[in-house]
Design brief:
The chain is mainly alpha-helical. Helices cover 71% and strands 0% of the residues.
C-alpha cells in the first residue's frame, strides 16, 4: 500500500508539473513509458482493497488521460496503440466493476479517455454497459451493478444508447 501511495503521489506531481510547465513534461512521459505496460497486470493483481485499488485507479486515470491527450503531439508523445493492449482493456473493465465509488470514477475516466481513441475500447465499454443494464433488470437497486454503470455515465460513456432493449 505504501509503495502504491508513493507511486500515485509521484505520478500526480509529474502530471501537475507537466500541466504547469511544458519543459517538465518529460517527467510524465517517463512515468507513462515505465508504468503503462505494467498497468494491466497491476490492476489484475489487486483485490478489492479500497486503498490499493483507489491509488492504482488514480494512477491509471492520470496516465491514460495524459497519453490519450498527447496522441499525435509529436515524436515525444508516449505510445498507446489505437487499439489498447487487450490485457489492459480487460483489466480496466474488470476493475471498474469491483471498484469502490471513487476508484470506479477514476477507472471510468481512464476508460473514457481510451474509448475516445479506440473503437475496440468503445465497443468494450458499450458491452459492459449493456451487460450491467441487463443484470440490473431483475434487481434494479443492486448498488454493486449501479456503481460502475453510474461511474461510466458520469465520465462520458453513453449509457443510454448502449443497450437498445433497455
Amino acid at each position: 500500500q505504501a509503495l502504491l501511495s508513493v507511486l500515485d503521489a509521484s505520478v500526480t506531481c509529474a502530471a501537475d508539473d507537466a500541466a504547469l510547465d511544458v519543459r517538465l513534461a518529460p517527467r510524465m512521459e517517463a512515468a507513462a513509458t515505465a508504468l503503462l505496460p505494467r498497468l494491466g497486470q497491476l490492476l489484475a493483481m489487486l483485490g478489492q482493497e479500497d486503498h490499493s485499488l483507489a491509488a492504482t485507479a488514480s494512477i491509471a486515470r492520470r496516465l491514460l488521460r495524459h497519453v490519450c491527450s498527447q496522441a499525435g503531439d509529436g515524436a515525444d508523445a508516449p505510445e498507446l496503440p489505437s487499439a489498447p493492449p487487450r490485457a489492459l482493456l480487460t483489466a480496466l473493465l474488470r476493475a471498474v466493476r469491483r471498484a469502490p465509488r471513487h476508484a470506479a470514477l477514476d477507472l471510468a475516466d481512464g476508460l473514457a479517455a481510451v474509448a475516445g481513441r479506440s473503437r475496440e475500447a468503445q465497443a468494450a465499454c458499450s458491452a459492459l454497459v449493456a451487460e450491467l443494464i441487463t443484470a440490473l433488470a431483475p434487481a434494479p437497486g443492486d448498488t454493486a451493478l449501479l456503481r460502475p454503470l453510474l461511474a461510466l455515465g458520469q465520465r462520458g460513456i453513453d449509457i443510454w444508447s448502449c443497450c437498445e432493449s433497455s
